[in-house]
Design a protein that fits this description.
Number of helices: 17
Bound molecules: N-(iminomethyl)-L-glutamic acid, fe (iii) ion
CATH architecture of the largest domain: Alpha-Beta Barrel
Number of strands: 17
CATH class of the largest domain: Alpha Beta
Distance between the termini: 42 Å
């Protein structure tokens, strides 16, 4: 045996424990030392009420990764003695910085070409979101543009947005279609998501949102579009395995509760899990419908009724709140986050990144907005952006936490206390991002 082999047993080495062969001991391929606060979020997934403030922090910690998963966590000065280091083990000195799980952004619309900054300016001049939509802007303007865009351009646009999400600490993202609104262009949007999911370090959970709006060509006969959704699009999306979820914009003037129920029931029959844009601009019973159908999440909820909150509190449906959208629409009333928490609902936070109501890829920005406008504690906001957001994607216990043996999705921060994340806002404090054990963002500094 060479000295190196003595130190690092070969992969083929078989160790016996009580007469049973087991694989070779795992060795660290990545080691992070000198962490001020290791924010593990170990424990219940998702969390409710007061438990949202429990981040399960280990002070002065170190963390070892083996391959794609977390191998060990412990005191920084002891961690190296606890694990064998694989040859070439990547060492990161966190320099007294915080380490958190990667964020889970559970609601985004990132597949589009044209941006709509003109509408942002129109809103600042007093026009409402619905007025702009009715006068030829809004979702249907994005649809006309996407249909005239080639697939390669859409891939490039999505790639840029995923890069920015990753650079701000997101390691798992949900991505919706919804700017195609024809069978061919909805399938193409989902194929673009699939293409990047296979190539980009960010893990993408795809959602079919063909019921985002009624497109121009079906405005005079919406029943016809609903038939296409139910008989053509949903079966094909399911058959091609292009989406985990089906979502709908359940809103006055878009899809009614009755239409939403019919479309979502068809999606569930085809094995898709459900999400709803519910009570975003007006209270229309979207939250109640989400609970009735056992949807995984009801999203937006700015105008949710008291009955809607009660229904959410009694259910496992996650209330996904999107404070960036209220902020960017310039509205004064934010979703009743404190009421939702205090009455027992499970809440998550997401960006809603889209070209109309909120063009923002940054989860730290969303966390900051949630603290200031919802009055969440920094701990509650981080919980809602990690462990609870994982549950909103059907990934409870699998993402959004740092668990031994779990996937190593980590962010090393240029901040010594987790409360700095919302407090020191509008700048990027992310230093390293690790996705499935691999460093995918490094040092966050000039080349
Ligand atoms: O979540 N509400 C519907 N969808 C988006 C807005 C889409 C757009 O304006 O392009 C949202 O806010
Ligand atoms: Fe949305």
């Amino acid at each position: 045996m060479t000295p190196a082999e003595e130190q690092y047993p070969l992969d083929s080495d078989v160790v016996e424990i009580m007469g049973k062969p087991v694989g070779p001991p795992k060795r660290a391929t990545l080691l992070i030392r000198n962490i001020s606060q290791l924010v593990t979020l170990q424990g219940a997934s998702p969390r409710k009420g007061a438990d949202m403030n429990n981040l399960a922090i280990i002070e002065s910690a170190g963390l070892a990764v083996s391959g794609d998963s977390v191998l060990a966590i412990g005191p920084s000065d002891e961690i190296e003695g606890q694990v064998d280091l694989a040859p070439g083990c990547h060492l990161i000195d966190a320099g007294g910085g915080v380490v958190t799980p990667g964020f889970v952004d559970s609601h985004t619309h990132p597949v589009f070409n044209m941006t709509r900054e003109k509408e942002f300016e129109m809103r600042l001049q007093g026009k409402s979101y619905m007025e702009i939509a009715d006068s030829g802007g809004g979702i249907r303007a994005s649809v006309r543009d996407l249909r005239a865009t080639d697939e390669k351009t859409l891939r490039l646009r999505l790639n840029g947005r995923l890069d920015r999400m990753l650079a701000h600490g997101t390691t798992t993202v949900e991505a919706k279609s919804g700017y195609g609104l024809s069978t061919a262009s909805e399938l193409m949007s989902l194929e673009v998501i699939k293409y990047l999911n296979e190539r980009h370090p960010l893990e993408i959970i795809p959602t079919f949102l063909g019921a985002h709006e009624v497109p121009d060509e079906h405005r005079s006969n919406r029943a016809e579009y609903i038939k296409i959704l139910i008989n053509e699009m949903i079966p094909q999306v399911a058959e091609k395995n292009l989406a985990n979820f089906c979502d709908i914009f359940c809103e006055k003037g878009v899809f009614s509760v009755v239409e939403s129920r019919e479309i979502l029931k068809a999606a569930a029959k085809h094995g898709l899990k459900l999400k709803l844009h519910a009570d975003e601009l007006d209270s229309s019973g979207g939250a109640e419908l989400a609970c009735e159908l056992g949807a995984v999440s009801a999203d937006h909820l700015v105008s949710v009724s008291s009955d809607g909150i009660s229904a959410l509190a009694k259910s496992n449906t996650i209330a996904t709140l999107l404070p960036g959208t209220t902020y960017s629409l310039g509205l004064k009333n934010f979703a009743p986050a404190r009421d939702l928490i205090e009455r027992g609902a499970i809440i998550a936070l997401a960006t809603d990144c889209n070209p109309g109501s909120n063009y923002c890829e940054s989860m730290p920005m969303i966390i900051s907005l949630a603290c200031v406008h919802y009055r969440l504690t920094p701990a509650e906001a981080i919980c809602a952006a990690t462990v609870n957001a994982a549950a909103a994607l059907g990934l409870a216990g699998e993402r959004g936490q740092i668990n031994i043996g779990g996937v190593a999705d980590l962010v090393v921060w240029d901040a010594g206390d987790y409360r700095e994340i919302p407090y020191h806002y509008g700048v990027n404090l992310v230093r390293e991002v690790i996705k499935s054990g691999k460093v995918v963002v490094q040092q966050n500094k000039k080349a």
